[in-house]
Amino acid sequence: MNTKANHSIKCSVNECEHHCNAENYCSLNCVTIGTHEANPTLCKCVDCESFQLKNKTNQGSVK
Ligand code: SF4
Which atom of ligand 1 is nearest to the CA of 50? Predict the structure, then answer.
C-alpha cells in the first residue's frame, strides 16, 4: 500500500497502483500528463500517463 502521499498531486483514481488509498493523493514524486487528442479543448481530453492499473490480487493487502 502506498503511504507517502505527495500533497502536491491530488488524485481520486483509486484504481491506480500509485494512488494513496486512504488519501486522495498520488504517491509519485512527479507524474506525466499528456493527451490522446490531436487538438485538446476539454479537461477530459487530457490523461495521466503515469497511470498503472492496480494489481487486483494485492488490493487490501499490506505490502
Ligand atoms: S499516477 Fe496518475 S492516476 Fe495514478 S495516482 Fe498518480 S496522479 Fe493518479
Answer: 1
